[in-house]
Amino acid sequence: MGTDVRLDTGVVSGEVRALRDDVLRLEQELARRDEELAEHRRELQALYEREARLARVEDERKRLAALPQNSSDFIGIASMEGKAQYLNEAGMQLVGLEADDLERVTISSFFFPEDLTYAVEHILPETVKHGRWVGEFRFRHFKTGAPIPVLYNSFLIKDPDSGQPMALATVTADLTERKRAEEERVRLKDEVIRVQAATLRELSTPLLRIGEGAVLMPLVGAMDSGRAAAVLERLLQGVSTAQARVVLLDITGVSNVDTQVADALLQTARAVRLLGAQMVLTGIRPEIAQVLVGLGVDLRGIVTLGSLQSGIAFAIQQPR
Question: Which backbone phi and psi does 131 adopt, to 5 degrees?
Fold first, then answer.
């Protein structure tokens, strides 16, 4: 009886050990499976992250590809030998090229023959040596041949690994509108200067009507050849317009009289007589009279009076 119990206990113990071994194997298998599952999860996560990176890279590539196409600047790439490889839409429109034309053009095609020497001997070497050249230049329109002023920015594209030059590139701005605006500003400035000069001439050579058939020009300040010419022009115009018979030129306020001024006065008097009018010179001060005599100025044909008042009285007394 006691022997049977011991046998049963041994059997049970053996079964328990076997069960424990089975449980251990199962636990180990589960642990292995859990590790495999975790590895699969890590691989799957890495795959998701890789796909996300690829998607971001693709988005970046699309944005970078869209950048030159949406730029208003001329963006082009050429081989180191000068063969055109890429030109964005704005660049093609600027120089009058079609997409099919690109494979047949080189960098030199964009320049005028007379500009090519400078491009080859200066711009290209500077770009290769220093990596960039920036300056104002001009392109040639392929269809019309018209010059296109540009701000030419030429630079090298280098291999990121070796650092060796891979291609020549440019981002170039069209200066046509800016140049046109500059020319317009210069034109307007010149026009303002011209109007101001004309206004100053009129102010420095005022012509006044003092009665029917008589005009007066009072002069003040220094006289030179330029102002003397303006006096002549203004007087002759006034005589013709007013149909004047008497022209009073008052030099009371003139600070200087030299040979040039004296000659100009004589020319004015002769021109006035040719128009059928009488020249009256007033305001001759003693020092000016002395200068005129010293210069040997011939005042025949010119009425000379000491004051403007006497000159006006003379003009009024003349028959109509």
Answer: 90, -10
Look up the pTM and report it: 0.52
Burial of 109 (0-12, 13-18, 19+ CB in 10 A): middle
- Of 94, 108, 104, the closest CA to residue 146 belongs to 94
Q: Which CATH number fits domain 70-179: 3.40.50.720, 3.90.1300.10, 3.10.20.30, 3.30.450.20?
A: 3.30.450.20
CA atoms of 162 and 191, how far apart (whole Å): 59
d(CA 33, CA 46) in angstroms, rounded, equals: 19
Location of each CATH 3.30.450.20 domain in the chain: 70-179
**DSSP at 123:** I
**Are 235 and 264 a contacting pair, CB within 8 Å?**
no
Query: What is d(CA 81, CA 103) in angstroms, rounded to the nearest whole number?
Result: 14
CATH of domain 199-317: 3.30.750.24
Rounded distance between C-alpha atoms, residue 294 and residue 305, angstroms? 19
* Residue 6: exposure state from Cβ atoms within 10 A (0-12, 13-18, ≥19): exposed
Asked if residues 103 and 84 have their Cβ atoms less than 8 Å apart, the reply is yes
Written as tens digits, the pLDDT of the chain (320 aa) is 444 545 466 666 777 788 888 788 888 888 888 888 888 888 888 888 888 888 787 777 777 667 777 888 999 999 999 999 999 999 999 999 998 888 889 999 999 999 999 999 999 999 999 999 999 999 999 999 999 999 999 999 998 888 899 999 999 999 999 999 999 999 999 888 887 776 666 555 678 888 788 888 888 777 777 777 888 888 888 888 888 888 888 888 877 777 777 777 788 888 888 888 888 988 888 877 787 788 777 777 788 888 888 888 888 887 76
Helix (H) or strand (E) holding 239, with range, is: helix 225-242
First to last CA, the chain: 178
Q: Summarize the chain as % helix, strand, coil (round to 5).
A: 60, 20, 20
